[in-house]
Amino acid sequence: METGASAFHVPEWMIQFADQKQEFNKRPTKIGRRSLSRSISQSSTDSYSSAASYTDSSDDETSPRDKQQKNSKGNSDFCVKNIKQAEFGRREIEIAEQEMPALMALRKRAQGEKPLAGAKIVGCTHITAQTAVLMETLGALGAQCRWAACNIYSTLNEVAAALAESGFPVFAWKGESEDDFWWCIDRCVNVEGWQPNMILDDGGDLTHWIYKKYPNMFKKIKGIVEESVTGVHRLYQLSKAGKLCVPAMNVNDSVTKQKFDNLYCCRESILDGLKRTTDMMFGGKQVVVCGYGEVGKGCCAALKAMGSIVYVTEIDPICALQACMDGFRLVKLNEVIRQVDIVITCTGNKNVVTREHLDRMKNSCIVCNMGHSNTEIDVASLRTPELTWERVRSQVDHVIWPDGKRIVLLAEGRLLNLSCSTVPTFVLSITATTQALALIELYNAPEGRYKQDVYLLPKKMDEYVASLHLPTFDAHLTELTDEQAKYLGLNKNGPFKPNYYRY
Amino acid sequence: METGASAFHVPEWMIQFADQKQEFNKRPTKIGRRSLSRSISQSSTDSYSSAASYTDSSDDETSPRDKQQKNSKGNSDFCVKNIKQAEFGRREIEIAEQEMPALMALRKRAQGEKPLAGAKIVGCTHITAQTAVLMETLGALGAQCRWAACNIYSTLNEVAAALAESGFPVFAWKGESEDDFWWCIDRCVNVEGWQPNMILDDGGDLTHWIYKKYPNMFKKIKGIVEESVTGVHRLYQLSKAGKLCVPAMNVNDSVTKQKFDNLYCCRESILDGLKRTTDMMFGGKQVVVCGYGEVGKGCCAALKAMGSIVYVTEIDPICALQACMDGFRLVKLNEVIRQVDIVITCTGNKNVVTREHLDRMKNSCIVCNMGHSNTEIDVASLRTPELTWERVRSQVDHVIWPDGKRIVLLAEGRLLNLSCSTVPTFVLSITATTQALALIELYNAPEGRYKQDVYLLPKKMDEYVASLHLPTFDAHLTELTDEQAKYLGLNKNGPFKPNYYRY
Amino acid sequence: METGASAFHVPEWMIQFADQKQEFNKRPTKIGRRSLSRSISQSSTDSYSSAASYTDSSDDETSPRDKQQKNSKGNSDFCVKNIKQAEFGRREIEIAEQEMPALMALRKRAQGEKPLAGAKIVGCTHITAQTAVLMETLGALGAQCRWAACNIYSTLNEVAAALAESGFPVFAWKGESEDDFWWCIDRCVNVEGWQPNMILDDGGDLTHWIYKKYPNMFKKIKGIVEESVTGVHRLYQLSKAGKLCVPAMNVNDSVTKQKFDNLYCCRESILDGLKRTTDMMFGGKQVVVCGYGEVGKGCCAALKAMGSIVYVTEIDPICALQACMDGFRLVKLNEVIRQVDIVITCTGNKNVVTREHLDRMKNSCIVCNMGHSNTEIDVASLRTPELTWERVRSQVDHVIWPDGKRIVLLAEGRLLNLSCSTVPTFVLSITATTQALALIELYNAPEGRYKQDVYLLPKKMDEYVASLHLPTFDAHLTELTDEQAKYLGLNKNGPFKPNYYRY
Amino acid sequence: METGASAFHVPEWMIQFADQKQEFNKRPTKIGRRSLSRSISQSSTDSYSSAASYTDSSDDETSPRDKQQKNSKGNSDFCVKNIKQAEFGRREIEIAEQEMPALMALRKRAQGEKPLAGAKIVGCTHITAQTAVLMETLGALGAQCRWAACNIYSTLNEVAAALAESGFPVFAWKGESEDDFWWCIDRCVNVEGWQPNMILDDGGDLTHWIYKKYPNMFKKIKGIVEESVTGVHRLYQLSKAGKLCVPAMNVNDSVTKQKFDNLYCCRESILDGLKRTTDMMFGGKQVVVCGYGEVGKGCCAALKAMGSIVYVTEIDPICALQACMDGFRLVKLNEVIRQVDIVITCTGNKNVVTREHLDRMKNSCIVCNMGHSNTEIDVASLRTPELTWERVRSQVDHVIWPDGKRIVLLAEGRLLNLSCSTVPTFVLSITATTQALALIELYNAPEGRYKQDVYLLPKKMDEYVASLHLPTFDAHLTELTDEQAKYLGLNKNGPFKPNYYRY
User: Fold this and answer.
1) Which residues of chain A fall short of a pLDDT of 50?
2) Which residues in chain B are contacts of A473 at CB distance < 8 A?
3) If DSSP codes are grouped into helix, strand and coil, which group holds residue C338?
4) What is the pLDDT of residue B59?
């Protein structure tokens, strides 16, 4: 990788995390969220507000593993909640197709050549209508796929049914146990007559499982495509330890994905999440945003635009200077904690908001987290006898001090945008297109282009993902003339920037 | 360098440029700007509006090279316009010191140790009050310096005099001929009993000169610090050709410098430059900005905030997508050229605005350039007999078509912000601090840390530059706790980000 | 009134509307919304998404009019859904009290004097927790009150129960029939031993009822306070016709209420309403906003801030020029209808979006209304056989053309912010405070200050409402010195502006 | 007037001011600005940075009153600096014509009818190219005019010459003495065979003169059009005292003029004025803006957009609440005076910034005034022996405290935008068009429409001014259908809003 694995910090929690992994057959007798969160990756157990089953009757208590189901063609190589929900799921997939023009364009271009012909992809992601469009695109490009869910709550049963009905071996349902989770993954990997040669992972659990159980399988695997912060960190760790035995593509840090997942998406979802949970007015409110990375930048810009007065805390002097130049007072949290109406964490750090801070907040202060883990607010410190918790609506708790002061805690400190707002299809389209292109690149790369290391998506592919999404905005790109391309020393088709370019 | 020299494009104009370099002793009989611009670097002949001599009487036509001058201590190792202007220059330097707290802080910290003790720095930069603060800081840090100007117009004679009076061997005056230019540089390099061991360059002319004339000198040189786009490109070219024989630090692409020189500075200077030249009202005006890099982003944000309707053109689909998400219509120039009130180029490319575009613009359309060269607008194409040029005020020409249509051309297509607005001291402070730290790093680096290649400023130093400027904003940085640093796998003092982080 | 009733336009729909009023005892056998909307005021039948009963079991089908209920003190002078829900309602009222500091401040100031002692107020408003805080404040200020609902859907039954439990004669429940609606109003007006002397109305139905049924009652009435656009228009109409027989206070047009109900509130609710219904991304979307009054200004500012490209249509050249200066392209709807992603109406006009426009919109275009009536989009024109309606979620319909094109229609063209988002308590606090002060002013005004006309809230009271809400923002007002007040010719306590001041 | 003269506050300084008026024949022996500012209206002596003579040679010391000049047609009924400068002035007028399309449109429409046929207008305004376009438009509309300058410094001699050359009796030059000032006015009013029937005034000096000297003249005068704050205040004062003997039109408070002179213009000129004087960077700066009227709103919006952190002070709770909702901390000046980098006054009040405040400001704090008089900053308090004044460039003083602290005072506390930036022609076009329409209205109004009172420009004319400026922005207004006009109760051609509408 160009940017140097050595430059990357291996955080402590990554290391601890890996040690705590357990195997699936130790079925826990009583599965609370608390116990689960130690044994499978955090992201695999985060709750999803928007991922409710559309047609959920919930009456059926039988485990899908105990059911005998066939699709209309008699195929039974899948395990979903209820194959009869396929029709509803198909309609959802069709609607999603309309909003994912980039993948549909890939399908069209693939009518001649099949860049993934021969590819055997095992995948582990959220199972949603958008993922289904990705999977069926991979199929149209020539690949065979087997798929499990990367999160025990996020599967849309109807979509899983629709995929199964179409002949995709899908193993996923909403509300899996931890044991189910690993069982489903195993069913995608370890099946007679199937030798996967590509991995598409989201969180690293699938990769982890193959490392643990079927390390020999890597001999035939051409590469791993990993989407999540967590999974990417694990890969860098493996690479640093010299244990990564195939090339891996870090699509999480591609430019388009980063900007959309963080800056552009959070700019909108911070407002959405706060409104849906609290109906508050933003104008005139004093807000402190902890962390001025892409997520913090998005939150600050949106709140400032709505008339809030925003303070920023930072540990990094460069980001701090950006906050200053963008018009935000840079403070330590203690300086403003008594006066602010809202506290938002966007750091990726732990214990950014401590019990001491919470004690000093004023009545009705809202506290929420937009960062990538649920450790930023020390919620555990609020689980003490003298404080009363009152659930006032879904995802909203009032924590009440003995003197009557109430703190409004959103989503129990978990990700606000994941829990209390929805992710626009457009953002998911960018991610899915990036994944598809990364698979194509790794699968078709000539011997030697990629070694046993972690790579960023090639600049040119990143640019290609972007270009596939421009028609949505009726945006017209300018082309270089031959003369201009020569003058700039560029190929007319890109890449247009050096790797260190910051956008 | 981490980001790979191989990833860098070598533009054609860089190559041509190098070929055209001539030597100084071929004194041209008649020096027009046109001829000059081929023989020395472009940046060395750009005009500077803000660089007028404060006390300029201009009566004295004697070349400084023909004068005998001594400072009050009897020293004559310098060549400036008029040593008697020293007092006025000293006052300017003192005012600048008040606004460059970072360098003053460095001086204070250097009272104990002298990180540049033994350093012999030869420098070639603009000679302004801010540079003077840098030079005197380098002196305070233990260095000996000899200095020339990197631009034949930009020297402030009073400041040069003040430096000479203080004992700095300075060779620079406003209005040097090309021959003078190289003579001054030579006087800094080639003097009895002086063997420079560090180079501080802005534009690459000094480095070029040593390569041509005194290549052996590089044996004792520990490194080059280069600030300009042009100079950095030359260094990458040398590196690619395997001819770079010492480590070089590209400070142009450090984060703080980039953001301030481009995004933050242009956000303000586009408004300033347009107002000072045209007194126009921004509200409701239709503007097309060509290029959505940092400069384009700054221009667009400012004009949008003032109520202009802004269109963007781009060749790079990623930047194009950013423009869309930031609320700008992405168009080809032809689509809007008939309707816009203002055309601004920020591409670094050539012939972005062609005669054909100019022919189609509406009456009173304003055309200007914020990019890094004067080729973006094809101004030469307007020098045809059927068009009348009318100079309506300094830096403002009306080009008049036979039918009476007027185009308002600013600064003849050269950089608007350089020609028609001023650069805030704060921005210069960031650049100067970056240069000082780069010199310290290269001078003190242990053997082997840097090879014969071009390096970006180490992240930690970039962060340090930022931290030295935070007090200006009364900004309070948060410190990591031990526990948090461990959790994140970071050193409490930084660096806080991986090298590929985009800010 | 200072601003001249004669300057006010009497719209046609106001006149028609009044003619269609019917009496309550003609009980319709089958009450559809369509029939209802002709017989009682439009606002009285608008649907409310946020007005669901908190504890709704809905099992009880008995009409409250047929029930015998008593509160804990044996009082039965009320008619609510279920007096047993009082405790829950009381808790809601207590929460609302915390966010309505202005009314609580009024209560505190009233501990000494009772400015409404002797006042007998009959009210007809939405029955919510916020209204309850208003009613109990009026009580604390010395008034006796009887209250009905101004909308057949909006009553929160629990709140009504809590008020009844506290001894307030409340006649209101969620889901009243038209007959119930007028019966409830009548029970507030016409009861043995009760002669109201003040009217607080929202929509004009109460005022209308007394005019029709008990015109003699006006002899003892000191004044009417009216909050809604519709009710205020009716009052101006009465005034113009010489039929207004008591002073009336138009609180709808007070500065604070206008800015909060329109500009500030819509700036937030347009984003909220669009997100909750469609989960769309705003960045890069092309939007046309019809109308650039306060509502349009708020919508445009919010969408521009989120990165949308916004076009504006206007009929008024002054507002049009404002749109230009604020950075929006001013177009006719036809010019952009084919390209936009969203159409938002904010005009108060009818048929702004016609079937012809709808026919020309592109696939997936979202259409919604933020104006004050449901006539802006010609929804009726979409009820034709060739178009298919598909309800995709609550408040969201897809209207599908024969060629498959879908238009996304929100809230069936009714008010988006009323139907699909919530109104912050802070806004309701401003309205309620304004109503309370208007009642105090009219009740205590010396003979002759107000004639039989429609008045705006006195400037000083408007300023007082604002000042009561400043502590929420920890805002510190500056006081004039004696010298400054003299210099400006102002009283130190205001009013600070001439009546024509535009803010 | 609809809004009630009685509602208007008569400030003390208006009253004092009128008392101090003196007559012109008391020629002062030595005219300093200090003495002048007591005897003629403040606005008549304000300095103008942009009003320098274009071709100023300044050699000619002869008073124009002592010269014998004729234009090329032999006419000598004028008094200007130098009739030979006419050609240059004509060119300036032609350029201005290109940017004043509204007046040119009026001329075109007047080719058939002459709405000002028979009008004899005496005018007293700034004499600039834009005023010349107004005067020549009035001529084209049928009027005869005589003109003097309303400010002793602001006349552009070349323009005055061009008008004289064209046959306009103009009496004005740059650098008039006070005596000259009144002499010029007198020469416009009191001349054989001339009986003016309309007054166009800017500041009220002309009106005052006629009141004092030729009160009988008002018998034939149909009305006064007054543009300035000062002049309008005088008129309201006359009206209140029952001494106004003709109708007067307050064009200062027309919507378009207010928004452009204040909100839109100041939004741009605050940035321009600060940059031109200080070259400061706005990003990250802490700024306090005193006053949140239209001017303050414009300043705050601009600075916030450039990344400054803005605090606001206010005395009016409504404006204060607006500041809160727009995202500004509302403070008392004392709370932030120690920390801010810039202090801007926009109040119209006196001694808003006192010596005590100035004593507490930090080093390098910039202080300037955007309000309508020079009393907002107590500059006089800085003229004490212990403080040193240092003029660092035009319009910029450093005031230095004994401990070395420097305050940067701009334009000596006079209007920053008048002194240090320029007014765009577009703004002047709006004002001039408003004046022309007001003259037409008053001149043609049927007997009885206007009484001896002060009137705002009729809404419809205000709308007409706006509509004449829309083509500049290629803005397309929507027209009401007959059905819509009927529905809204509006005439299709406006007026579109009730008089109290706030925009």
Assistant:
1) 1-9, 14-39, 48-52
2) 321, 324, 330
3) coil
4) 57
